[in-house]
Amino acid sequence: MRIKAAVLEEFGAPLTIQELELAEPKSGEVLVRLVACGVCHTDLYTASGADPSGYAPTVLGHEGAGVVERIGEGVSSLEEGDHVVTLFSPQCRECIHCESNQTNLCLAIREQQNRGYLPDGTARLSRGGEAIRHFMGTSTFAEYTVMPEIALAKVSPEAPLEGACLFACGLSTGLGAAINTAKVEPGSTCVVFGAGLVGLGAVIGCRLQGAERIICVDLSEERLGLAARHGATETVVGGFDTVERIVELTGGFGADYTFEATGNVAVMRQAVESARMGWGLCTVAGVAGKGETLEIVPRFLITGRRVAGSSFGGVKGRDQVPQLVERWLAGEIDVESFVSHRLTLDEVNRGFELMEAQDGIRSVISF
Ligand code: CU
Ligand code: ZN
């Protein structure tokens, strides 16, 4: 079929809207009609050329939600009309990692997915016979996409897809960092560095886990205001003295749990140093640039602090994304407030501009 999609033709250049050919889903694959898709930093990072493992031409986008249009042979967990959230982090339910409750890093299709291909090593997207790769295995800046069944989470049809798409990346990453990775305990004190979608998700996750104090650190008063609305009990404008301020606010010890959601390695270091002596756990959820390193004075570790990290918040997508969406529908998570701008597919580059200007939390493309 012919579809309209936003193609990354050349690094550093704006995406171009083109007509592409999308082949029918093969065995184990599903054709999804996209309804909404968030514009995330990872898309911009790849488009800019900063990611050395990036490739072009490709169709970007990985924060998608839509409706199953057709299923390929052998697909058993989805049927036509199901509402789905796309997963760049799949869940095959069979590999050694899927069987472990300690990680969500499914091993089933990693290699082909990293190279931009579907599990059989080929692409369904093409243009005049030339294959176009599937960015993150999702390629959701498009009217339709073909994805493996194991990379789609079936969610409640009652959830508006414009909000559901945020669970495909940023929001689940933050929620999961607090719920799955840190396993925040009731009554604890938490610090969240960064109040973008991941950080706000972590604030909500800490609140849902029953944290008593949630201190949010960011450079923007406006975002800190939003963090307070979602459950932050205190807010701090970040700076060179942030660690001292956190230590002071926590009776001289630091916090039980800290979360880093900026991707800045200097902030990661602050998050480690703001964790409490004895048992403080720092969870890194932000993605640092390739080649960057995190500096930690070993004394911080010897004295009982720990550092953890997770991808996609440790969320096993097919099992847990539907559960998180249910918590939204039950009123525990306010998702609507994160949709700052609504765009058409043709306006996708505007989504990047708004992100670079730090205007709002998320721009969502509606199809
Ligand atoms: Cu993302
Ligand atoms: Zn797996």
What order do the helices and strands come in, and which of them pair?
Blueprint: E1 2-8, E2 16-22, E3 29-38, H1 41-48, E4 58-59, E5 63-71, E6 83-86, H2 96-99, H3 110-114, E7 125-127, E8 130-134, E9 144-148, E10 152-155, H4 161-164, H5 170-181, E11 189-193, H6 197-208, E12 213-218, H7 221-229, E13 234-237, H8 242-249, E14 257-260, H9 265-273, E15 281-284, H10 299-302, E16 306-309, H11 317-329, E17 339-343, H12 348-356, E18 362-366
Parallel strand pairs: 4-8, 11-12, 11-14, 12-13, 14-15, 15-16, 17-18
Antiparallel strand pairs: 1-2, 1-4, 2-7, 3-5, 3-9, 3-18, 5-6, 6-10, 7-8
Helix pairs in contact: 5-6
The chain binds copper (II) ion (CU) and zinc ion.
Zinc ion binds next to α2.
Question: Could you describe the 3D structure shown?
Answer:
By secondary structure, this protein is α/β, with parallel strands linked by helices. It has twelve helices and 18 strands. The chain has two domains: 2-168 and 335-366, Quinone Oxidoreductase, Chain A, domain 1 (Alpha-Beta Complex), CATH 3.90.180.10; 174-311, 3-Layer(aba) Sandwich (Rossmann fold). Strands 3, 5, 6, 9, 10, 17 and 18 form a seven-stranded mixed beta sheet that branches. Strands 13-12-11-14-15-16 form a six-stranded parallel beta sheet, sandwiched between helices. A hairpin with a 7-residue loop joins strand 1 (2-8) and strand 2. Helix 5 (170-181) packs parallel to helix 6. The radius of gyration is 20 Å and the shape is globular. Copper (II) ion (CU) is lined by residues 40, 42, 62-63, 169-170.
